[in-house]
Amino acid sequence: QVQLVESGGGLVQAGGSLRLSCAASGSTFSINAMGWYRQAPGKQRELVAAISSDGSTKYADSVKGRFTISRDNAKNTIYLQMNSLKPEDTAVYYCNAGAKAHGDYVPYDYWGQGTQVTVSS
């Protein structure tokens, strides 16, 4: 069993920054990758960024160059640094635990509670 607790969402102006955190607890031994998803009203949930146990990362084209995913193994925590935020980034952001397979991120059914990110124009 894995529990994920997210924090760091909020309201910012366009061009601003936010840093999201996701702390994992429980039986995390088999987790070899984690990722951030987001879902805006009326849209599908999409993968924003993922990081694997070897430190490799991947990003959605829409956030590449603006967002950075990182990890702190000692704290069992991942982060999403979001810079140059745009109104289009407004969504609920979810942390996920999963795995990397054939270069793709595969989500397991372990999700954070979601944290709202709102970017005003």
Task: Offer a few descriptive terms.
single chain, 121 residues, globular, 7-stranded mixed sheet, 60% strand
What this model shows, in words?
It is a single chain. The chain has 121 residues and is mainly β. The chain has no helices and 11 strands. The strands form 2 sheets. Strands 2, 4, 5, 6, 9, 10 and 11 form a 7-stranded mixed β-sheet that branches. A hairpin with a 4-residue loop joins strand 5 (46-52) and strand 6 (57-59). The chain starts with a strand and ends with a strand.
Order of helices and strands: EEEEEEEEEEE
Instruction: Return residue spans where pLDDT drops below 50 for at least 5 consecutive residues.
Output: none
- From the spread of the alpha carbons, the general shape counts as globular
The largest pleated sheet is described as: 7 strands, mixed
| Topology, number of strands | 11
Beta-strand fraction estimate: over 45%
How are the SSEs ordered, and which strands pair?
Blueprint: E1 2-7, E2 10-13, E3 18-26, E4 33-39, E5 46-52, E6 57-59, E7 67-72, E8 77-82, E9 91-101, E10 104-111, E11 115-120
Parallel strand pairs: 2-11
Antiparallel strand pairs: 1-3, 3-8, 4-5, 4-9, 5-6, 7-8, 9-10, 9-11
Structure summarized in a few sentences:
By secondary structure, the protein is an all-beta fold. The protein is built from no helices and eleven strands.
